[in-house]
Amino acid sequence: MKIATILPTKYLRMREDGQYNMCLAHLMDRPAYRDFFREQSRKGFFVLMDNGVVETGEPLKMEELIEIAEDIGATEMVLPDAIRDKELTLKRGREAMDVFFKDDILRQDIRLMAVPQGSTKEEWRECVLEMLEWPVASIGISRFVNKYYPHRLEALLDVPELIDSDKEIHLLGCAGDPKEIFEISEGMPKCRIRGVDSGIAAIYTQEGILMESGEPKPLVDLDFDSETLDEELLSANVEWWEKRCLGEK
């Protein structure tokens, strides 16, 4: 399993050797941010680009997402979705693919990820099943499924069709203890988890908390413009988060 550690712009180079990266499309108006991920792509590293819906409430338009992805050389991009809304997510995804494959253009240089949504287990599962028929490379499992599944492993095991498919699986975000990520990886048949991303280490640092202390995850958003983080604490939290994902204490 590969880990993408999300950091504020000033601290991105703390993980510049990371071969698995997650970037956020709505932050691409920051030259330093955009340049960093363009560089990561040119190194041949995997760059996954999210659509901005979690942070802003609305995903960027597909035309803009494609422009950004092509500019930075993203490996894969997340289709527009709507948090816990199955029908709107499917509608946005279909429309986005129409734009992506317009005039039968083969964009073989950019892969697609679909993120199933729903307000119930049944809706979420139905969304997954439709997306398995889409021309996407991967399925992203949102931490927001914890509204109706106590653990994302339970959600994944509820859709054996996904496990048996050829779609790669990525875990979007970390709801709490990163041990969840390791438990999912260990509990999944066929070693099906490709990777995970989260800014949880920077969020703890932002609040002045050592993750190893066991305090619950702060309910605050990550400030991507922060330039005053305690770098020693950030380094300790990043290392702990990544090791915890891999099952180390």
Structural overview:
With 249 residues, the chain is of the alpha/beta class. Strands 1-8-7-6-5-4-3-2 form an eight-stranded parallel beta sheet. Helices cover 38% and strands 15% of the residues. The model has no long low-confidence stretch (mean pLDDT 95). The radius of gyration is 17 Å and the shape is globular. Helix 8 links the parallel strand 7 and strand 8. It has a single domain, classed as TIM Barrel (Alpha-Beta Barrel), CATH 3.20.20.
Quick structural summary:
This protein has 249 residues and is an alpha/beta fold.
Give the helices and strands, then pairings.
Blueprint (H helix, E strand, L loop, with lengths): L1 E4 L14 E5 L6 H12 L3 E5 L2 H4 L5 H11 L3 E3 L7 H15 L10 E4 L6 H11 L6 E5 L9 H6 L2 H4 L4 E5 L6 H9 L5 E6 L1 H7 L24 H15 L4
Parallel strand pairs: 1-8, 2-3, 3-4, 4-5, 5-6, 6-7, 7-8
Helix pairs in contact: 4-5, 9-10
Please mark out the parts with pLDDT under 50 across 5 or more consecutive residues, or reply none: none
Task: Give the radius of gyration.
Answer: 17 Å
Count of strand segments: 8
Q: Give the SSE order as H and E letters.
A: EEHEHHEHEHEHHEHEHH
Structural class per helix/strand content? Answer: alpha/beta
Please tell me the CATH architecture by its name: Alpha-Beta Barrel
Strand content: 5-15%
Q: Provide mean pLDDT, rounded.
A: 95
**Which sheet architecture does the biggest sheet show?**
8 strands, parallel
The domain tally reads 1
What is CATH's topology name?
TIM Barrel
Instruction: Report strand order across the widest sheet.
Output: 1-8-7-6-5-4-3-2
In CATH, the homologous superfamily goes by the name: Aldolase class I
Please bin the fraction of helical residues. 25-40%
| Separation of the first and last Cα atoms | 17 Å
Summed up, the helix count is 10
Overall shape? globular
CATH class: Alpha Beta
